[in-house]
Amino acid sequence: MSIKVRYFASLGAQVGRSESELAFTKTMTVRDVWQLDAIEKPIPDNVLAAINMEYADLDVQVQDGDEVAFFPPVTGG
């Protein structure tokens, strides 16, 4: 099984790339995706995640063919 992983804004700089393909053989959550793909980089506090362009909790399971995206916290005024 495989998924596409995308990192936006400062998160891409933090992990050293803006996207990657990740192959896996066991059930994984969004949090597991970060831990496997962003090797040895702790997941930032308040990071936002999406599966197939819909916001998702870090404990949601991903499926074959999903696109998982990570965004830094949004601020504005």
Estimated radius of gyration: 12 Å
| Ends distance | 41 Å
Q: Which residues form runs of ≥5 with pLDDT under 50?
A: none
Helicity, as a percent range:
10-25%
CATH architecture descriptor text: Roll
Structural classification: alpha+beta
The H-and-E topology, N to C, reads as EHEHEEE
- Quaternary class: single chain
Assigned CATH class: Alpha Beta
How much is the average pLDDT?
Answer: 93
CATH topology: Ubiquitin-like (UB roll)
Largest sheet: 5 strands, mixed
Spatial shape = globular
The overall strand count is 5
- By DSSP (H or I, 4+ residues per run), the number of helices equals 2
User: What percent of residues are in strands?
Assistant: 25-35%
Look at the structure and name the CATH superfamily: Beta-grasp domain
How do the strands of the widest beta sheet line up side by side?
2-1-5-3-4
Tell me the count of domains: 1
Write the layout of secondary structure elements.
Layout: E1 2-7, H1 10-15, E2 19-23, H2 30-37, E3 48-51, E4 54-56, E5 67-71
Parallel strand pairs: 1-5
Antiparallel strand pairs: 1-2, 3-4, 3-5
Overview of the molecule:
The chain is an alpha+beta fold and 77 residues long. The protein has one domain: Ubiquitin-like (UB roll), CATH 3.10.20. Helix content is 18%, strand content 30%. The protein contains 2 helices and 5 strands; from the N terminus they run βαβαβββ. Strands 2-1-5-3-4 form a 5-stranded mixed β-sheet. The radius of gyration is 12 Å and the shape is globular. The termini are far apart. The model has no long low-confidence stretch (mean pLDDT 93).
